[in-house]
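Hi! If you just cloned this repository, the fastest way to understand the data is to look at a raw example. We've pasted two of them here, unedited. The first protein comes first, obviously.
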Amino acid sequence: MSRRRPVPWIHRWSRPLIGAVALIGALGTAYLTVVKLTGGSAACPTSGCEQVLSSPYATVFGLPLTLFGFLAYAGMGVMAIAPLALNSDPQKEARSKLEGWTWLLLFAGAVAMVVFSAYLMYLLAFKIQALCLYCLASALLTVTLLVLTVIGRKWRDIGQLFFTAIVIGMIALIATLGVYAQASNPTTATSGSGSTVVEITTDSGPAEIALAQHLKQVGAKMYGAWWCPHCHDQKQLFGKTAAREFTYIECDPRGVNPQPKACQVAKIESYPSWEINGKLYTGTQSLEELAQASGYQGPRNFSNYIPAS
């Protein structure tokens, strides 16, 4: 009489482990999504996190990329845990079918996420050129999900699994390249130093110009970077004419008339940052907030508003 082989522990615990990893990823991306939508600064030991969140690659179809990451992690978590809810004897057949389908979906999702993360690592290293710990952690989580889906059960045909991974990987890569290729880019211009800067398209009213002149008179400074969309939003609030009136300090050495040392002295950690009367204000500020912080007493019939994220 042959003895039945015990089920390996990884096969018993693979789904809960996948669910736990997906939960960690979902919480991280949810946090970054809130930071992106509110224009805040992520808790990060390096400025690279803010640089990545402010880069053009952090938004897809007008929505934060982290939102799509959250949906991906949440979907992986649901698919991993859903079959475990079917425990009773009448549900065994339904659970078996659900496990089979969800394993294939988990594997496909993990492969797609790894391919997408690999492309983001390429952007991080060669395009954005910044160190983002959240991005590195997310890449590690996606690789962990893929490993767990491969070793978490006994696959009947490894060759077929490998072929499926190639097909899904190619589809994911083409879709990724297509998403960024078709992403709408704002009107840009090239500066004398070769940096690509975004043109300001809004008009300035008398109130915007008066506020900008007042900010310059009281010594207020706006710190930013040429690639930062929130900095562009801030300038859009003032309009083309007024944006040339206040003091702007470029922190990126690759920008126009850069002053990175001034940004270091001011301890700038996120863009944009305003220094007004010795106090720092981070994130895109409404013109009313700038007027209040600087003691502006002029007209406040501002015509521009913070655009939706």
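Ok, and the second one:
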Amino acid sequence: MSTPKTIDAQRNCTLEIERMLKNSQTKVIVPVITLGLLREYSQSKKIIYSDSEIRKTYEAAVTQLKVFLGHDVHIGAKYYDAYGSRMSRYGVLDPAGHLTYRLLPPYTEQADILIDWIPKRIKKHIDAKLGIVPLLHEPSTRVAMAEKPERFLELISEQIIKTPSNFEIFSFAVIKVHLEKFACKIYRDTRTSAHDHGVDLSTNFGVVYQVKKLQIRNASDADRLYAELKLNFDSERLQDGNVILVIDDIAKDIKQYLIDMKVQSISKDDILKMAANFDAPEDRQKVLRIVYEEFRREYSSRIS
């Protein structure tokens, strides 16, 4: 029977793991390190670990999670020796010497419960971030999701708003397939981890698209954005109208305001209209394939 002290210890551990997940950026790292250490502790009762031993338990946990999740997206970042000391902020490890650390209670006391809970919580976290993306690695899944235009458009509409990364990658995939119809090519030049500053998409016809998940409602918003564009692009490119914004939403009058400054904009609604115009199932399948490939290129495991 659980005592109040045990319940408090479990709660403290799960709250810290929730904090780890909240602080995760492109990859889930710290919770996976914690899982690897607890699995090792459960088997050996070992509490002192060298940095190389932490790395081995981490890599083993990544391998096991790939099987549990059915994919390797958002897990498996390269391990650095700074991670050991970083674990102290969550009360998991404490320094015990040079690049040597001690695994601490209450994690050790709650190891068996956490070993069962952490993979499920990681899966829930990744599913919330990625939605259906991990399922898109199967061609048969892409075929099924792209078969009916209504279902495809509903999927794009749901997924594009989930996160800034989703907005950027789904927008890129739709624009890419759209432009291919005109023998034009577009390339992603930056990673979505830079989404606060926008993601640049270059083309083979001199135009640059900049993707920003934001809303522009008034002239002052537009002026601030234009000032930022002037810092990022040369004046000739701007004056020639070769910078196109891809943004979440923009007021109609402000869209014209930017056009007067020779900056065109594409909103989320415009992206969805492009997606709705894909008549061939093959085009819709291609969008979903590109989405998966871009997520995997950016977020897949660096650990084999």
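That's it. A detail worth noticing about the second one: The domain at 133-299 is CATH 3.40.1350 (Trna Endonuclease; Chain: A, domain 1).
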